[in-house]
Amino acid sequence: MLDVIIVGAGPAGMSAALMLGRSRRSVLICDNAQPRNAVSHAMHGFLTRDGMAPTEFRRLGREQLQQYPNIEFRVTTVLDAKREQNLFTVTLSDESVHTARTLLLATGMKDVLPPIEGFQRYYGAGVFSCPYCDGWEVRDQPLAVLGNGPAGEALALQLLQWSRDIVVCTNGPSQIDAREQAFLNHHEIKIYEDPITRLEGTEQQFERIVFANGSVLPRKALFLQTKHLRRLELLDMLNCPMPERYQEPIAPGIYLAGDVYQTRWVSGAVADGAEIGVMINKELQKEDLTRSYRSLKEV
Ligand SMILES: Cc1cc2nc3c(=O)[nH]c(=O)nc-3n(C[C@H](O)[C@H](O)[C@H](O)COP(=O)(O)OP(=O)(O)OC[C@H]3O[C@@H](n4cnc5c(N)ncnc54)[C@H](O)[C@@H]3O)c2cc1C
């Protein structure tokens, strides 16, 4: 029986595995290679890793985990999770079954893009969701925001830190009220209400917005707030709803780390994973010590 099964080997899962491995815990970490930033060519804002390709980051992480014989890494999908008494059993896509004392879900999230031609294609290549991750590379360039109402206004104002040439595309009638509009005007931010038909560009790079009225607006980058789908399917299988007030563990023996809960950064996910790794080790140690104390009393 294992000490911990970790589902997801992104920054959060691998960081937890490192702490647990170094605590001499037996760990199985499983990953099916669908990281949130798969479309991104370079990751920014993480000290000592600024500009590194996410694939290289993951390769290095995996290489470092290999130094610990008590950590097993598998490229596989965890299809199913069950809880029986105090143990967790998972089934992998190779049909193997594994049991552990604790389960850590570091499964990340998926960004949901608008169903408009070009968004999927250019996400990470001129279409971005995070100015802190990708704003610097397009500083002082013509930028667009896709958004409406107060959220659209807020994102446009936020982007002023990176460029003064900003437009807001509301993709339909504007819900930006007169006060917000006056504020945008004050910063020379124009509103385009026409629906967007598609995004166009080169093979690798977004270059322009095409509107339903046929007009074309060249822009260096487009920022939007994506919807987030947290990967919580395994929690559902365990019949474990998210508690109203988030806590770790979210149920006895079940932990979450990284974007699946709330982080939006690689560095944040790494920090989260490390903390949860230590927390799991402490909980297991408490259990171990209680058990040995009980058996001592029985003697
Ligand atoms: C376009 C884009 C650009 C970004 N740029 C930056 C940036 O420059 N700097 C920055 O700090 N952050 C950036 N981010 C955010 C960053 O990607 C996330 O914050 C980070 O990846 C979160 O790490 P995580 O470990 O929680 O999740 P992830 O990295 O998403 O890892 C989760 C892993 O779990 C695996 N998984 C899920 N379910 C299963 C299952 N059932 N079985 C097996 N494996 C499973 C997935 O395959 C995935 O590998 C960007 C995000 C996007 C979308």
Plain-language structure description:
Pfam families: Pyr_redox_2. Helix 1 packs parallel to helix 2 and helix 1 runs parallel beside helix 8 (266-298). The chain starts with a strand and ends with a helix. The strands form 4 sheets. Strands 1, 2, 3, 4, 5, 6 and 17 form a 7-stranded mixed sheet that branches. A 5-stranded parallel sheet has the order 8-15-9-10-11, covered by helices on one side. A 3-stranded antiparallel sheet has the order 12-13-14, with no helix packed on it. It is built from 8 helices and 17 strands. It folds into 2 domains: 2-111 and 227-298, 3-Layer(bba) Sandwich (FAD/NAD(P)-binding domain), CATH 3.50.50; 114-224, FAD/NAD(P)-binding domain (3-Layer(bba) Sandwich). The protein is elongated and about 80 Å long. With 299 residues, the protein is of the alpha/beta class. The chain binds flavin-adenine dinucleotide (FAD). Flavin-adenine dinucleotide binds next to helix 1, strand 2 and helix 8. The site of flavin-adenine dinucleotide has 40 residues, from helix 1, strand 2 and helix 8.
Instruction: Report the mean per-residue pLDDT as an integer.
Output: 96
CATH architecture group name of the largest domain: 3-Layer(bba) Sandwich
H and E string = EHEHEEEEEHEHEHEHEEEEEEHEH
The percentage helix is 25-40%
The low-confidence parts are none
User: What structural category characterises the helix and strand content?
Assistant: alpha/beta
CATH fold topology of the largest domain: FAD/NAD(P)-binding domain
Q: Alpha-carbon distance between the termini? A: 26 Å
CATH superfamily of the largest domain: FAD/NAD(P)-binding domain
Major beta sheet summary:
7 strands, mixed
Q: Which cofactors or ions or other ligands sit in this model?
A: flavin-adenine dinucleotide
What's the CATH first level of the largest domain? Alpha Beta
Cα shape = elongated
Number of domains: 2
The fraction of residues assigned to DSSP E strands is 25-35%
Q: Helical segment tally?
A: 8
Q: What is the CA-based Rg, rounded?
A: 23 Å
Q: Got a strand count?
A: 17
